[in-house]
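Hi Prof. W.,

I finally got the Kinesin-like protein prediction working! I wasn't sure whether to trim anything, so I left the full sequence exactly as given:
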Amino acid sequence: PRPHPTLRVRPLTCTETRRGDQQVVHSLGDGAVHVSAARHDATFGFSAVFDAGASQEAVFEGSGMRQLVELAMDGFSCTVFAFGQTGSGKTYTLMGPLGQSDTQPASPALLGLMQRSFTCLLEQSRSRASDLALSASYLEIYNEQVRDLLSPGPPCALPLRWSKTRGFYVENQLSVEFESLEAIVSLLLQGSEPQARGWDIRESCPRSRSWDSAVGHGEGVMGAKASPPNVVLQASTCPSKQGTLCFVDLAGSERVKETGSSGELSVEANSINRSLLALGHCISLLAKPRGKRTHIPYRDSKLTRLLARSLGGSGITLMVACISPSSRCLSETLSTLHYASRARRVTTRP
Ligand code: ADP
Ligand code: MG
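And this is what came out:
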């Protein structure tokens, strides 16, 4: 199968509306989306397009996410990745407005793909075999280091190794069993909030707000530094049949082109560059017909190593491209749309 590229166009934000941004993206129905601006006029095709009016539930039901959960239960490696520029709605799509208000939990209608998938996974596991165990792990890649977000204390880098039987895997990664939605959501929150892990954000990052985004939520410029955090859920019936469902909130794609930043920031920008460029490179090589394919350089970045199985080999991938409809985001929007249409040609053999 091919990855199902799904597109989500978020509504114009209040700020965008107030300053009079034009809406340049229009859904035409049947998976087609049209971009029209002064010197641009292009149509792109997707498996599904969700526009500003689409609810979180509509995205869950219409993107094939439910089927993906079932496939993970059947033992396949399934991956969902959200990509697009900072502020395009990646985190909102995956997690909803998680942690935006500390006191009030998000309204059920706003829950993202992750919480909905967890619910579905738990329902499935209850109705299937009784010896089935669900466990979760939560990682981020920061400056080309893989860090465990569930281990207590300051993050430390874990080695990413390769073995013939397992492919690439993270050594000593913490994996926590869960049996309820509350349990898995609290793991998600724990991983998403550095404070909850008991260390001071200012010590480890000069710009705490960006650290915030580095684990997957926030807005504005914050997401730019984010390394792609992953939540990997493992559902296993017996050792020979272990399905995984992996969610990847990619770093803001706009950093790829940014140059001229200095010091620490530039190290971060470079490693994000490296990850996203490597991912784009692997995707374009995978998109070639099987006979013409050369070696796929998964080893070029931590991100592509982690995603090797889901991208190329035996995995099933759902890609959610996120864009803003605003005229001000036009060039990033076009680059996201091109990136996504390229991924459409990749095929895998699960
Ligand atoms: P990203 O993770 O891509 O940087 P966010 O998910 O943080 O972007 O979204 C940026 C802002 O837009 C947030 O304030 C978020 O609540 C809002 N937003 C994103 N998508 C939607 C949507 N579909 N409906 C309403 N608000 C949205
Ligand atoms: Mg984000």
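The radius of gyration is 19 Å. Does that look reasonable to you?

Thanks,
D.
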